[in-house]
Design brief:
This is Lipoprotein. The protein is an alpha+beta fold. The chain contains five helices and 13 strands. The N and C termini lie far apart (55 Å).
């Protein structure tokens, strides 16, 4: 079987050749939205999409062990190759005009998008080897000016600025908020350790020429409140012992984010030693600009 390192290097070469191909030029006027690909364009697109799926098949066989440098390198190489290949795919308008939900479907790759398909999240298991089952997230967006934006949460590659605050979650839903601005609410969840879980909500603003991951959507938790994961102006994360988060959901009709949990040692409102668990419910209402209410008090 070809090693992950060799395969990753081959992918780098393939992506380079693919990007230089005249048939991969974004905005080809001959490629209508939803139109099937033909000829050489179809062949090249099929190769790169198939390569992505093969990388996920390789990733599924790897297990990171910290006492073996080779296993660490293989996992990192495959994650990097996945990110590079996915970026090449998302940069080709002939592919993004297709039904990406089915075209890119692969075991291990999560795909979720807003109903208007202006904001997409691609998620896969990072395979860090610890009890924290973190995931890698890449973001694909179309701005108001029609510009394509591809970025990530910084868990792969060398990106250091304007990172998507994912908390390492796996994202299941994206809602377009009712606002004069282009605002989207991303809902995700994750396993923080062997005995704990978390849920997160992130608001993303699409600008005419970029993406804002620091939109002021949530009230700050407060200085003396214990928090879990990433919490900031655009993101809210709730941690708890396994099964203690009863509800973390958004109703697009009422624009209400509902949070319900049983108190324990790591919940926003904790339960003290020997204290009986309490059920805490918080309803945050989006008013067109931000969520009103504090989930941590």
């Amino acid at each position: 079987m070809m090693s992950a390192k060799v395969y990753a290097l081959m992918l780098l070469l393939l992506v380079g050749l693919y990007a230089c191909s005249p048939n991969s030029t974004p905005g080809n006027s001959n490629a209508e939205a939803g139109a099937p690909m033909t000829g050489k364009a179809m062949e090249l697109s099929s190769v790169i999409v198939d390569s992505l799926k093969k990388l996920f098949a390789i990733a599924d066989t790897l297990q990171r062990t910290y006492n073996e440098n080779d296993s660490v390198n293989k996992v990192d190489e495959v994650n990097e190759a996945i990110a590079i290949t996915l970026t090449a795919i998302l940069n080709d308008h002939k592919i993004t005009r297709q039904n990406m939900d089915s075209l890119l479907k692969a075991p291990g790759l999560g795909i979720v998008h807003a109903d208007d398909k202006k904001l997409w999240l691609f998620t896969w298991f990072e395979n860090t080897g610890g009890s924290f089952k973190s995931n890698i997230n890449m973001i694909y967006a179309k701005t108001a000016s029609g510009q394509t934006m591809i970025t990530s949460d910084g868990r792969v590659g060398n990106q250091e600025e304007n990172l998507f605050p994912s908390s390492g979650a796996w994202f299941e839903k994206i809602y377009k908020l009712k606002s004069k601005k282009e605002l989207y609410l991303c809902i995700g969840s994750g396993i923080g350790c062997n005995t704990c879980m978390f849920q997160t909500a992130v608001v993303v603003e699409l600008l005419p020429d970029g993406i804002n991951f620091n939109y002021e959507a949530f009230e700050p938790p407060g200085e003396e409140v214990g928090t879990y994961g990433e919490n900031g102006p655009s993101c809210l994360t709730i941690g708890a012992a396994n099964e203690d988060i009863e509800e973390f959901s958004f109703d697009p009709k009422t624009q209400i984010l509902t949070i319900a949990y049983l108190t324990d040692e790591i919940t926003p409102i904790p339960s003290g030693e020997g204290e009986k668990q309490r059920r805490i419910v918080r309803k945050l209402v989006f008013n067109g600009k931000r969520f009103v209410g504090n989930a941590f008090q």
